[in-house]
Amino acid sequence: MTTGKYRHTFVGIAALLCCAAAPTTLHANSRVEAAPNLRVTVMAAKVDPDRNGMYEDLTGTIDAYAVLSTLPATETHTTTTRRNVSTASWEDEPFTFRPQAAGSYLRVAVWDHDHVGEDDFVADTHISLDYVKEKGLTDITVPLSGKDKESRGTVSVKITNQL
């Protein structure tokens, strides 16, 4: 247990690490910086052929867009639609997410835009942001799963810190 003048300093540091939104000066020689934002880009989403006729157009392609969100749900970003594709890329559409609490995930969901009726869910994946940070990963390729939990393809994302 910490006693004396240092006890309050350690409690203050722990509180700032949990909740800091901007650089905060503790005293003349100590500084705690806010966590950097995450810059996330969907480099490629490759969708396997539709075995059940649920989401492909007659041409065997989809009008793909991706929805990126953090879980617990705090932020959501949606890409533009790429028409008539089986592999879509949004390299030109990076999104910035605020720092996330421990235990957070990035959900990447791929949808098929329909001009008539509702859009079709194709597949999604969840990426542990703690794991990404712990391993120092930036380029990640993970499987996409449909509602039935069967493989529907892969998605590649680039996650970097943005100060």
UniProtKB/TrEMBL annotation:
Parts of the chain that traverse the membrane: none
Keyword line: Signal
SUPFAM superfamilies attached to this UniProt entry: C2 domain (Calcium/lipid-binding domain, CaLB)
Database matches in InterPro entries: C2_dom (IPR000008), C2_domain_sf (IPR035892)
Signal peptide: 1-28
Highest taxon listed in the record's lineage: Bacteria
UniProt xrefs under PROSITE patterns: C2
C2 domain ranges (all copies): 18-142
Name assigned to this protein: C2 domain-containing protein
